[in-house]
Amino acid sequence: MDLRTQLESALGNSHRIIRELGGGGMSRVFLAEDTEHDRQIVVKVIPEELAGQVSIERFRREIKVAARLQHPCIVPVLGSGSADGLPYYTMPFVEGESLRSRLSREKGLAVPQALRILRDVAGALAYAHEHGVMHRDIKPDNILVTRHHAVLVDFGVAKALTDSTQAGQALTSVGVAIGTPAYMAPEQAAADSSLDHRADIYSLGVVAYEMLAGRHPFEGRAPQSMLAAHAIEMPTSIIAHRSQLSASIASLVMRMLEKHPGDRPQTAEEVLTALDQIATPEAPTAASPTRNFTDSSARKRKKLIVAIGTAGAGLALIALSLLPFRHNARTSASLSPSNVLVLAPSVPTDGNPTMSRGADRIRDALMQGLSRVNTARLVNRPEENVQATLSPGEAGRRESAGTVVTGTLYPVGSGVEVQFKLVDATTDRVIRTFEPRTLPHEPSDSDLRSAIDPVLTGIGFITEPSLGAVTIPTVIPAYAAFEDFRAGFQLARETDFASFQQAFPLFRKAFERDTSFIQSQLCLAWLLRTTGRTRSSTQSAEEFDSIRVYVAQRRSRLSPYEQVIADVIAERMSTDRGVAALRKLIVMVPKAPFRQALSHMLLDMNRPYGADSAFTDVLKSDSSLTLVPAFWLARAGVYHYIGDYQNALDAANHARKLAPSDIRAFRPALNALAAMGDTAAFQKILEQAAAASSPFYGIGDLYLEAGQELIAHGHPALGAKTLKLAADWFDARTPQQLATATVGPRAALAYVDENRLDDAERLLKPHVSLIDPDVRFLGLLGRIAAIRGDTILAMRYSQQLAALPAEKLSGVPTFERAQIAAELNQRAEAVSFLRDAFSQGVVFNYRARMHVLRHFMRMKDYPPFKALITPQG
């Protein structure tokens, strides 16, 4: 029996199937005639591939909930049932067309027409949400446009399908998503269990954008890419596609598209209020409060909002700026987010002196508190007034501010409620809405500090050049914790070891001050990994792993930005998944210090050409990197590895010009000249390097690496002479210096190359007796034993390394085992260890130096070894 016959049998003699209309992923659609009532209806049938997972009774119960909705802009459900196990439901046939059909014909609707459709759908949502029903699949296909109205279909069907699935099954297992990727809110795509009505508001925002801009905010993406874009990418301002659109309309649409549900309009009723204000431009405008409220409270709140709007003429302006303040307004394109305008809290115009005093005290507290945000300069302009008709964005643009803080006071009981918002003045988009704070009429200093503390943190994130609005956490940390975090973040951006050492305790201190501040832990984990601490120290590796577990358990609390960082550190080593996550991070924060990590991750995966391309892209986005020596040093290393020694030398010379007294800038130049065979230029630069210095990299280290490079490229005499200079330099160090974990082991390396094995062993033994010894020290002792011909002792050290957690330590123990095997001339074993080490996360610096290490030089013509140091992309 075909489906049509099954339906007619289930519907009874009073219904006749006319034809099939089509359908989508969740249903097949038929036009039918209700002969008893002389009308046409639509029958939607759940397809067989879904029906097997659906409990028909639970489906009918959920459909009954939706059937109770009676609203002019909601197409009602008439009935439901099953036809041979296939659930179906019926609804009236609506003459008209879907919004999808209209949009395919008209690229961008007339503004009045789009606003009418938006208002009808928002009205339907407001009614349904008030009755506890979400739609979950707002899209143009489910909006029917008639001559005078727009109506919503399939209300509650997505939830009916979701909630009626059999235990232990998921509808997505057959490849059908409940909801449509192009219109899903970020939390819906993530299957967030706390999903609520604000997901519908986001989806309606996407529809509104499409109606007004004539294109989807993430046009042309594949489904998975679309879901990722909803989660992490901010759409281009709608103004960019339709410049004549009013700021109030653009602001509303962009607010509806906020990633965090708390930053959107909190109810469909609030959307309706905003649309009413747009439709009646003579009415004063003001920000609506972002809390759930009933119709009656909404009407009361509307009256208060209008009163607050008229009070705007008495607001004091406080300007915060990193740049000199200029009175004349600038164009939106020139506004910097670091220029912050604070509107003192609005109060009702009922002459209440207590409210006015409260606003003044909050304003004063803001002025005092914002003076602590050292990325901004406070300029108090109390004599300036803002007209009530200006939106926050317009006020910001008038005062050349890129970011605006708005505040509103509401009377509540025996006190007042204050709520702050951060607004992007360029787009009128709400960056963050803060939780309302209730204060007594006469708040104490402590009350005021508590109320403004989240605002200080929000502004701190926005005005820090390498952070920005997108990095603000979901849970706002205490400002004191943010100060420690920012100090650590700024140090972590530097390229010297001393700065990194100072950054570690600051990230830890930030988390101790506020344990909700997960971003500080994420940055600590990032620094542990990128500085190599997780490769040499078991304690650091365990700390890194504990952070990974802690963050994974709290993923639902993370902002989209933090989730992407978590995705990067979730991979202990460089992988394709980690690279993809890092690319997302760069899209979100183009100027973040993380951006250069992409090149390093590609290098770790033996893709130097891809890394060089990534370096070029970074330079395009920030030309100031041409003034950063570390950028050129990294590029020089890439060129040297692929054998492009001239470009390596040019990049090294760039670094030397920028940092003429830094030894590290001489290293790639000497290595390039050694590889090119220009011994005269090599010796000249080597003499110049003697006058240079570096806190953690001495001239002895430079001699050691340069000598190894000379020998590897066929200059044994000059190489031996240079290695002798290295050993002599280390001999001149004091006993106290040689006892340190930085100088002593490097001296041991120089002594091994000079065959001074006893001296090397003497320096290493104290370090391996520590509770958490550096893995590399064990490896070097094993190599010394192998050089002496003591295979048993060498293998004993190799077994000690095998007992260490290689993956936690990014493969370094396995790499050290490979070096011992190579020294024992066990080529096959050495290559096997190397392959394992790279799969466990050994970084590029190890691979890049393999061609100069004497135990590996014996293997340079061994094909399996050559394959490991041959670029793969």
Task: Give the secondary structure arrangement, pairings included.
Layout: H1 3-11, E1 15-24, E2 27-34, E3 39-45, H2 48-51, H3 56-67, E4 79-83, E5 86-92, E6 97-98, H4 99-105, H5 111-130, E7 143-145, E8 150-152, H6 157-163, H7 186-189, H8 198-213, H9 223-232, H10 247-256, H11 268-279, H12 295-310, E9 317-321, E10 340-343, H13 353-370, E11 377-381, H14 392-398, E12 403-412, E13 415-424, E14 429-433, E15 437-440, H15 445-463, H16 479-492, H17 497-513, H18 518-530, H19 533-536, H20 538-553, H21 560-569, H22 576-588, H23 597-604, H24 608-621, H25 629-641, H26 645-658, H27 667-676, H28 679-689, H29 699-712, H30 716-731, H31 735-738, H32 743-753, H33 757-768, H34 775-787, H35 791-802, H36 812-823, H37 827-839, H38 844-849, H39 854-857, H40 863-868
Describe, in plain words, how this protein is organized in 3D:
There is one protein chain. The chain has 873 residues and is of the alpha+beta class. It folds into five domains: 3-92, Phosphorylase Kinase, domain 1 (2-Layer Sandwich); 97-295, Transferase(Phosphotransferase) domain 1 (Transferase(Phosphotransferase), domain 1, Orthogonal Bundle); 312-465, Rossmann fold, CATH 3.40.50; 473-570, Tetratricopeptide repeat domain (Serine Threonine Protein Phosphatase 5, Tetratricopeptide repeat, Alpha Horseshoe); 734-740 and 753-873, no CATH class. It is 52% helix and 10% strand. The protein contains 40 helices and 15 strands. Strands 9, 10, 11, 12, 13, 14 and 15 form a seven-stranded mixed sheet that branches. A five-stranded antiparallel sheet has the order 1-2-3-5-4, with helices on both faces. A three-stranded antiparallel sheet has the order 6-7-8. Strand 1 (15-24) and strand 2 form a beta hairpin. Helix 3 packs antiparallel against helix 6 (157-163) and helix 23 runs antiparallel to helix 24. The longest helix has 20 residues, at 111-130. It is elongated.
